[in-house]
C-alpha cells in the first residue's frame, strides 16, 4: 500500500481544489491510499525562534504526517499568480529541521484547478520550485492544471468528471511508482 498525503492550498470548505482532493481519494488506484491533512491551517507562520527543542504541537503533528507518508500531493489554486500563503508556510515547516526534514527525498507532485484559462500553472510551477528547494523529489512531469474551474464544476463534483478521474489517477500512479523506486534505493 502506498500512502499519499494530500495538502490542499485552499482553506474554503467548498473549494474546487478540496473537491479535487476528494476526487483523488475516491478514484485512487488499487494499492494507493490518499489522506488529506487539514492541519496546515493550524501551523503558525514559520519562525525559527519557535522551532527549537519544543516546536508547536501543530508542527510536530504535520511533520509526523509527512514522515509517515510515502509521497505528497499538493493540490493548489492560484492566488494572485502564485501559491496560497498557507501552502507556502506548510512547505517551510516541512523543510525543517535542515538536513533531516520529513519532506527530504519524498516524492511530491502538484495538481490543481483555478478559474483562469491556464488552471493555475504559475502557482503549480511555484509550488514545485518551493517543494524542490525544501528537499522533496518533485515529479516535474506530473502536470494537472484544470482551467475554468468555477464554470466547469458549477453543477458537477470533480469526482464525476471522467477527465479529472484519469488525470488524478495518473498523478497518483506516478507518485506510487516514485515511492516504490525510493524504497528500492533505500
Q: Describe the biggest sheet?
A: 6 strands, parallel
Instruction: State mean pLDDT (0 to 100 scale).
Output: 96
Instruction: Return residue spans where pLDDT drops below 50 for at least 5 consecutive residues.
Output: none
Could you tell me how far the N terminus lies from the C terminus, measured between alpha carbons in angstroms? 17 Å
| H-E string | EHEHEHEHEEHH
Tally of DSSP β-strands: 6
Q: How big a fraction of the residues is strand? A: 15-25%
Helix/strand-derived category reads alpha/beta
Summarize the amount of helix as a percent range: 40-55%
Shape: globular
* Count of DSSP-assigned helices: 6
Rg, nearest Å: 16 Å
Short description:
This protein is of the alpha/beta class and 186 residues long. The chain is built from six helices and six strands.
Description of the structure:
With 186 residues, the chain is α/β, with parallel strands linked by helices. 40% of the residues lie in helices and 16% in strands. Strands 1, 2, 3, 4, 5 and 6 form a six-stranded parallel beta sheet that branches. Strand 3 (71-75), helix 3 (85-94) and strand 4 form a beta-alpha-beta unit. Helix 3 runs parallel beside helix 4. 42% of the residues are buried. The mean pLDDT is 96.
